[in-house]
Amino acid sequence: MSTITSAAPAESAVPGVSLYRAIWxxxxxxxxxxxxxxxxxxxxxxxxxxxxxxxxxxxxxxYDVVPSGLPLSPEKLADIAIAAVPxxxxxxxxxxxxxxxxxxxxxxxxxxxxxxxxxxYDGEVLDTVGSTEEFNYVVKRxxxxxxxxxxxxxxxEIAGGFAMVLVVTGxxxxxxxxxxxGVVTVRGTPRKRVFxxxxxxxxxxxxxxxxLFLAITGMPWSxxxxxxxxxxxxNHGLGYPAQLWDDVPKSEKVSxxxxxxxxxxxxxxxxxxxxxxxxxxxxxxxxxxxxxVAKAAGLAPGFDVAMPSGETGVYSAAIYxxxxxxxxxxxxxxxSGTPLVDISYGEYPLFGKVIEWxxxxxxxxxxxxxxxxxxxATCLAIVLSCVTGVVxxxxxxPSGRVGVPPQPPQRSVYIGLWAIAIAFGLAFPLTGGxxxxxxxxxxxxxxxxxPLRRAxx
Length: 457
Fold this sequence. Notes:
The chain has 15 helices and 10 strands. The protein is α+β, with helices and mostly antiparallel strands. Helix 1 (14-49) crosses helix 12 (368-396) and helix 13 (413-427) runs antiparallel to helix 14 (429-446). The longest helix is centred in the N-terminal third of the chain and has 36 residues, at 14-49. The two termini are 21 Å apart.
């Protein structure tokens, strides 16, 4: 959503003209800065929505098996995985979600972490792939730009905040002001700029709520805002129910350190410790028994089991399926087999439930195909908004200049915009800081240096 240029309001209302131009200018700058990021988010997000379908088609050779007899035990499958990657140790085991699915054992060695896909019936190794090279993992990391490091990831967080700015300012610019078109209809032909303006405005307006939803529900994954909100909720008893850990000794590790897949709400939940005193008189229960305990506890098929880390470590079993009601995480004492902490979605506090629900809908998992295609349509609307915004800008851009919308005739309007920027900055600090920087550059640099003023006019 780059620049929506609705017909200007009545020129007699100077304050209205000033506000309109100021918001148009903000919308333009924000769109110009984030178009590449929004395109990346929309395209990779569209792919990730259909990760299961991709696995079932492009990578069916590693996931699909033909049931034949009794499956091998988890420990036997773990031994096969170690043999497939010599010198490695098992870090987690994924139980098959259905009789027609492979078992996945994650091993760690000198070459890093590796996923080993095994036919649970005959022990055949179907495929091995580095954990960080698996297709959907790579798509997700590119989606957040974490694939390229912390700084690009922070830029995506800023872009997510700017997406909210674009939605709000875009709706304001689209709002009908005596124009006869461009509200719900598209005028002209692709040869005319008004066609691209109307297509941009109508697309953005109709998809505004869904784009805003995607932006807001994507923020929990952000490196700065998401981590700080997660910590704040946890410290105030609004994230995961910390009281479940009151009666068990806790390690320095948190759930996301050991589990391959873990829910956002419990990522920072501490991992309990096994009873070290029992280590003197008992042997570890082993992976087979840990899987039996998880199944007996009622975990939905397809759960992961993380292996204990050291003598005080625990077996951690978790499942995060499309059905939120089946979310579950259990930490199991490695000597007694006793569940030390058992938490499900139903036990999350209100904020935890709301955020998990938003994440589930964001990923197209909550309402089946309807959810998937609704999020896909929103991603396509973002792509269309970006493309039409760029084309519209190019068509109106004066030769040799950027073609920034004119500054508002009433400069005092910026006082209100500064207040809005500060308030937004308190809610989303990185984006707020970027907005303030944008205003400073616009007011203190572009406006005061003649060559820049001409170039950006």
